[in-house]
Design goal:
Chain lengths: 446, 409
């Protein structure tokens, strides 16, 4: 009605409410939209009306259907409500039936008794995960049965959460990790710097670690024994006991069991199918549109595969999400790239024109939506199948808040890892908050 | 109507032109940059460093007629400092041709990613706070190595803070020359770097006629040091040297020493210095405790020149929190850079120097007189006489004893 040019008095008359109430709503609306004037509200509505918005109906089962989280951003949510209000006003009935904005909650981790930065401590095994102590969780994986694995990086452990109870599945000891032939129980041995986890189609847990300067992938079998899968090569990482160590890389596994390994300090992604080869990186220039093996990556960390097994790379140092086409072997930027340096802009526009700040991890939903941690901005963002970028969660300020409330109002502190389970739940490693958080059922089940 | 529009257009163009000219004249010729985690958790001390750099540059707004400015970047990512943001920030500095020097890095951990970026661009760095021996000449395996931090093959990094192991050297000299000690036992909870402290201690102690009679390394943090203390006593030690911090129970070890070795002296490093938790751990009957600190606090200096500079600073920043540790080291590093840039301009015939020329001038610094010390650098970038102070526990509190001069111990 504002967009139609109605005055507050006219709107009040139409909705049978006071003029002051209309003014209050309008003030709230301006604040939410981040605008100052009535004309800016009008311009926003006009802009939104020209954009596709689906309201109050489940997403149709077509490839290009807008994802449900298109309404996650408060502007989208308010926009939907506003459009509805405009429609309802026309028939004299006001019915707001848009789905509620997605909420966020903590599913594992709690502060240490004496929270000290750099934070984190160890504790809570075999108890509720909500009470457990984590130290810089960096990476997450969920298997087909809903078991969640956490790279508890600062504790040199891999933890798992089964029906809300946490335990250690590997690491924490001081011994040397010994190869599988000896059948050593992994929980008694040192994992080194294990910063990434992934599960394969058979629900076998894999981890990426740097031990004694060598980057390695290990598999943990159903009996809890370690099997070294591949030693990738040297990993020159700087280690600090009093500062946050960066992840050593990332890991993704295809349906056929092919490993994709991000070697952060080597600025490359490797492929292992029994034979190790370079899959992306090592080039001198960015190389978009060309061969992935000729492209430049800068501290790549998180990896994810879509259903066609195209590979997505959190190209952290380049402030981009890159995509390697499986069939062509070419690389492109799917998000970021508007400038040389980090930034925080572009929401609701084309993702390749947005600015990101050190994205650490990426995950792909069944509908092709690409979710990623915009770590330096303390946010989660997503790229829809239409190529546009949207806010998923986080205010952009660092801190810890928002559990039980819309994810857009939550605060994170350097969130690094994320994963999507088969039910469409999104899990986030809120790294510096020493917690795992969840946005339930945001992407729909597989 | 057309005439009015034309006039308006001309006015607008003139306004834009004037704005451009103003920007051009206000643009600095030379920028000194820093990268500090000023928005991180509990960062008041860090902000104070930024103030000190800014103060030094405001005191010297031009160098040989060239306008000087300060560009402060923030490498915090949330609550903590971040290697990924630090590296990107140095790349931003490198991309700005006016940046001729950096006061930093702030920590050795951050230095591991910042130094190579600056080094590749021959950009000078002067650090007030980094102390890891791996940044220059560690006598132990380091990852990354000092050489790999310098991909250009030449040095661009200088510091006035001491290499960590030099604390062992300073403590040994003081223990032998001032305390008259000759037999010391040492324990180390600080890994390979700690081993170097002990090595430096033993070497310097030997120069003064002392002997390190026993040495033990702990991989874990012990609660009970009695086995070590009994061994030390059996070998005739009249003092203990500890390379560990308060959280590693160092001061509890000192309290236990009093029981096993009555009258013995406890020597330690900056992991305990000025820490009130240590005073608590020492208990009600503490032994004599002496410790090194890799900083010089000029507020205790009686030299009129230093007093005047400190007074000027306090006038600008009167709060107690403004005068935290390393504030005056950051001030001195800024002035060292300004001095080097001035000499580089002179050497370049009055023209703006290249970054490499600034690095060269910095390397040639001779006896620069700061408020925290007098500085020249060796070929690795280490100060020949870095900052070092001796403190002791007296009447239940930490007390400054003296500045240690490596050049003339």
């Amino acid at each position: 009605m504002v967009a139609q040019g109605l005055t507050n008095r006219e709107i009040a008359a139409r909705l049978f409410i006071s003029e002051r109430t209309v003014d209050g709503h309008l003030e709230h609306l301006r604040e939410k939209l981040g605008v100052n004037t009535r004309s800016q509200v009008t311009a926003w509505v006009v802009r939104r009306e020209s954009a596709p918005i689906t309201v109050a109906v489940p997403p149709p089962a077509v490839a290009l259907a807008p994802p449900r989280w298109a309404l996650a951003h408060p502007r989208a949510w308010l926009g939907a409500a506003l459009v509805l209000a405009l429609l309802a006003a026309g028939v004299g009935v006001l019915r707001l039936t848009a789905p509620p904005p997605p909420i966020i909650r903590t599913v594992a981790g709690s502060p240490c008794a004496k929270q000290v930065y750099p934070g984190g401590c160890y504790g809570g095994d075999n108890q509720t995960a909500l009470g457990a102590h984590l130290a810089r969780p960096t990476s997450l994986a969920v298997d087909s049965k809903g078991v969640m694995y956490i790279a508890d990086y600062g504790n040199h452990r891999i933890r798992k959460v089964v029906r809300g109870v946490i335990s250690t599945v590997a690491g924490g000891g001081k011994g040397e990790l010994v190869d599988d032939a000896l059948g050593i129980a992994v929980s008694k041995d040192s994992l080194g710097y294990a910063s990434a986890v992934a599960v394969d189609r058979q629900d076998q847990l894999h981890l990426l670690t740097s031990r004694k300067g060598v980057l390695e992938v290990w598999r943990i079998d159903a009996n809890g024994f370690m099997h070294r899968v591949v030693a990738v090569g040297s990993s020159t990482i700087t280690i600090s006991q009093v500062a946050p160590n960066l992840p050593v890389g990332g890991l993704a596994i295809s349906n056929e069991g092919v490993l994709f390994i991000a070697d952060r300090t080597g600025n490359r992604v490797l492929r292992f199918d029994g034979r190790l080869s370079t899959y992306a990186g090592t080039g001198e220039t960015l190389g978009d549109g060309g061969s992935a093996t000729s492209a430049q990556l800068s501290w790549p960390i998180g990896l994810a595969l879509d259903k066609y097994e195209n590979l997505y790379i959190a190209d952290t140092g380049n402030n981009r999400i890159r995509r390697v086409d499986r069939a062509k072997g070419t690389i492109t930027t799917v998000a970021g790239g508007a400038g040389e340096f980090e930034g925080n802009s572009g929401d609701e526009g084309l993702a390749k024109d947005a600015l990101l700040s050190f994205p650490f991890d990426v995950a792909v939903a069944r509908d092709g939506t690409i979710a990623f941690t915009d770590t330096g901005n303390h946010r989660l963002r997503a790229v829809g199948p239409d190529g546009r970028i949207y806010a998923l969660a986080g205010t952009g300020r660092w801190g810890f808040s928002g559990d039980g409330f819309p994810a857009s109002e939550a605060e994170f502190d350097g969130p690094e890892g994320l994963t999507i389970d088969s039910k469409g739940n999104l899990f986030i490693a809120d790294t510096e908050n020493q917690r795992i958080r969840e946005m339930p059922n945001i992407f729909g089940s597989a | 109507m057309m005439r009015a529009l034309t006039a308006l257009l001309l006015f607008g163009l003139a306004a834009v032109a004037c704005q451009g000219a103003e920007n051009a004249t206000s643009r600095p010729d030379i920028i000194i940059a820093s990268d500090l985690p000023t928005s991180a958790y509990n960062s008041a001390d860090i902000v104070a460093l930024e103030q000190a750099i800014g103060f030094a540059i405001r005191q010297q707004p031009t160098i040989e007629g060239y306008k000087l400015a300060y560009w402060s970047l923030d490498d915090a990512l949330g609550a903590q400092h971040s290697q990924v943001r630090a590296r990107a920030n140095v790349r931003r500095m490198v991309a700005n041709p006016s940046v001729l020097g950096i006061v930093g890095p702030h920590s050795s951990f951050i230095g591991a990613v910042e130094i190579p970026e600056a080094n590749s661009a021959h950009l000078a760095m002067v650090s007030p706070t980094t102390t890891s021996s791996c940044l220059t000449v560690a006598e132990r395996p380091c990852s990354p190595t000092a050489a790999s931090l310098r991909p250009s093959g030449s040095n661009n990094y200088f510091r006035i803070a001491p290499r960590d192991p030099l604390q062992g050297k300073a403590m040994a000299a003081y223990a032998a020359a001032k305390l008259g000690l000759r037999h010391v036992a040492a324990f180390n909870e600080s890994g390979p770097e700690g081993t170097l402290y002990v090595k430096e201690f033993a070497k310097e102690f030997g120069v003064h006629g002392g002997v390190l009679v026993y040495e033990q390394t702990y991989d874990d943090t012990p609660d009970d040091f009695s086995a070590f203390l009994i061994q030390a006593k059996a070998r005739g030690a009249d003092a203990i040297y500890a390379v560990a911090d308060v959280s590693q129970n160092t001061c509890k070890a000192a309290a236990q020493m009093n029981g096993v070795m009555p009258g013995a002296i406890f020597l330690a490093m900056d992991g305990i210095t000025l820490d009130d938790d240590c005073i608590t751990d020492l208990g009600s009957s503490p032994p004599d405790v002496w410790a090194t600190y890799g900083y010089v606090d000029p507020t205790t200096n009686a030299d009129p020149r230093v007093k005047k500079q400190v007074a000027e600073y306090r006038k600008a920043y009167p709060k107690t929190s403004d005068i935290g540790a390393y504030v005056f080291a950051a001030y001195d590093c800024s002035r060292l850079l300004i001095d080097a840039i001035r000499r580089a301009i002179s050497a370049n015939g009055g023209k703006l120097p290249s970054r490499a020329q600034v690095v060269s001038a910095l390397a040639q610094t001779q006896n620069f007189v700061g408020v925290t010390g007098t500085y020249s650098f060796d070929e690795n970038g280490d100060a020949l006489s870095p900052m070092m102070s001796i403190y002791r526990v007296h009447d239940g509190r930490w007390e400054f004893v003296q500045v240690h001069n490596f050049a003339a111990p």
